[in-house]
Design brief:
With 508 residues, this protein is an alpha+beta fold. It has 16 helices and 21 strands.
């Protein structure tokens, strides 16, 4: 079949998109419904179908700073959103026992020190290390230091890079309110059938188990791991990444809060995986991500329950998954947003970011006059690149470890990794250089913090550093460190700030 014929088969001529149907009402579904209703609601109708019989996955409570982009588009007031979702602030992630047992580091959302045009701050810090002039690199980054000291503030002219810990169920409800306000509709019912055009294979409608028929021009699959439309109906295919990311199971449990919430997520490496702790205002989310080749579900539940604080509020739930990505995130007139599109790992809290990015990308490429192959290809290309970059960043945490105390960690340290990651690590080791690819999520500061935190130190620093005398370098490093420490010391504690700014109604 030549390209021209393929194009005709894939593209129903003169089919403007007027009706958008979203299947699934978890974080992804309501995020899509809120954004499309608010931003394109005068041009298209939005109907979300969800089933009360099928619960949402109920995890996904740590975010990254890119969430601000969506919140700005939706006109969300930060304090209102935080009250509604029992949210706390997040300045980064504390990685404990990842490099080796009893060794911790923080990947903060901040920038390190002061860069120059030729190289990042870590080159100056690296020479300072040789000369005994520096303390840990986090002392030169306000977000890092504030995490360690449990402080937080949002202030004019001080751009502290922050994200949130939030209650996923309440967040979906909050977004639902925005969708309804802008004309979005909800239909309750279990989708039992997906109808496709005989000629094009495009999805034309879904039928619910009560017989109701919901037709549309564009379908967004937010049905979670099921991938009801993108996979079960369209058989799009899945690239399995478990050879790079071996964890395939998670257990989640909520506990009562003990002590003041910290302004960071905790990620604690265990014998066959890692444990998360996500502090909300009214409770703590806990989970254990593991590989079931190395530990049974029962042993994993024991591991989690013996490493939590506070009374449990629900029974532990086991979630099974395969890491990887859908071969096309947009296939025919169906776009996968959420877990239906694939899953990298919760380690760097990139799930919600990816949903949001897919929605913004769809809005930018919105096929209002009809679905064109060029639009679909562009969407898929951008999504694939983004997923590959995030995958490499996550694999780095597992592979670059000095742990060899268990079979799981020995496997991780010896597994084959993508060539793209191999290149980044070699470049950094040899020369301290790291470059952010265009449109890549994680920037230089993130790569540097994780590579050095995991024990990969550059052998050299950039020669421009030698333009400073030793005394000048010492003054430069000390000045940044003192300013950072002074700035952070002026901020209130995280909990005091929350109590003044966004105290949840559940706490009063
Ligand atoms: P779901 O929550 O599973 O929602 C699926 C929806 O589809 C439901 O409404 C259901 O009713 C509906 N549905 C399904 N079948 C049908 C049907 N036949 N008819 C009608 N409706 C149907 N991301 C982050 O950003 N941060 C994190 O900290 C994070 N942690 C995670 C931890 C784990 C263990 C996992 C697995 C994922 C995590 N994620 C995280 C990723 C992701 O953010 C969450 O999992 C997210 O909440 C998933 O949302 P979803 O909307 O894709 O799917």
């Amino acid at each position: 079949m030549n390209k021209q014929t393929a194009k005709q088969v894939n593209m129903p001529v003169n089919m403007p998109v007027k009706k958008v149907v979203i299947a699934g009402g978890g974080t992804a579904g309501w995020m899509a419904a809120a954004a499309i209703s608010k931003l394109l609601g005068k041009a298209v109708s939005v109907t979300l179908v969800e089933s009360d019989q099928i619960p949402t996955i109920g995890v996904g409570e740590a975010t990254i700073p890119t969430l601000h982009i969506l919140h700005q588009l939706l006109g969300i007031n930060e304090a209102e959103f935080m009250v509604a979702t029992n949210a706390t602030f997040k300045l980064g992630i504390s990685f404990e026992n990842w490099k080796d047992l009893d060794q911790d580091y923080i990947h903060s959302f901040g920038y390190l020190g002061q860069d120059c045009w030729a190289c990042g701050f870590h080159h100056f810090w690296r020479k300072g290390l040789d000369l005994g002039l520096v303390s840990e690199i986090g002392d030169y980054c306000p977000e890092h230091l504030a995490s360690r000291e449990g402080r937080f503030a949002v202030m004019a002219n001080q751009d502290l890079n922050h994200a949130y810990h939030l209650d996923a169920g309440l967040y979906a409800k909050f977004l639902q309110g925005i969708a309804f306000k802008h004309g979005g509709e909800r239909v309750e019912g279990k989708i039992s059938q997906v109808h496709q055009d005989n000629h094009t294979g495009f999805i034309t409608a879904v039928t619910l188990d009560n017989g109701q028929h919901v037709s549309g021009d564009l379908f967004i699959d937010c049905t979670g791991f099921r991938g009801l439309l993108i996979e079960q109906a369209l058989h799009t295919g899945f690239d399995d990444w478990s050879h790079y990311l071996p964890c395939n199971s998670a257990i989640a449990v909520q506990t009562e809060t003990v002590g003041a919430p910290v302004p960071y997520t905790r990620s604690i490496a265990r014998d066959a995986g890692w444990q998360w702790r996500i502090p909300l205002q009214n409770r703590t989310g806990n989970g254990f991500v593991f590989c079931d080749k190395y530990i049974s579900n029962e042993q994993a539940i024991d591991t989690l329950l013996s490493n939590i604080e506070g009374k449990t509020l629900n029974d532990p739930r086991v979630i099974k998954y395969t890491t990887g990505t859908r071969r096309q995130h947009w296939n025919k007139n169906c776009i996968a947003v959420g877990l239906s599109g694939g899953f990298v790992e919760p380690l760097e809290s990139t799930g919600i970011h990816l949903f949001q990015k897919a929605i913004v990308r769809l809005l930018q490429l919105f096929p209002h006059t009809g679905i064109d192959d060029a639009i679909v290809d562009e969407f898929n290309k951008q999504t694939q690149e983004e997923m590959d970059n995030i995958r490499d960043f996550i694999v780095l945490h597992y592979y670059q470890t000095e742990r060899n105390d268990t079979a799981f960690w020995r496997h991780c340290a010896n597994m084959a990794i993508p060539d793209s990651l191999k290149h980044r690590m070699a470049l950094f080791k040899e020369s301290g250089r790291v470059f952010k690819k265009a449109e890549e999520l994680f920037g230089e500061a993130s790569w540097v913090q994780v590579m050095m935190g995991q024990g990969l130190l550059p052998d050299q620093y950039h020669p421009i550093v030698d333009q400073m005398s030793e005394q000048e370098l010492a003054n430069f490093l000390n000045r940044i460190k003192q300013n950072t420490s002074k700035k952070v010391a002026s901020w209130p504690s995280h909990i005091d700030f929350i109590n003044h700014y966004c105290r949840s109604k559940m706490m009063t």
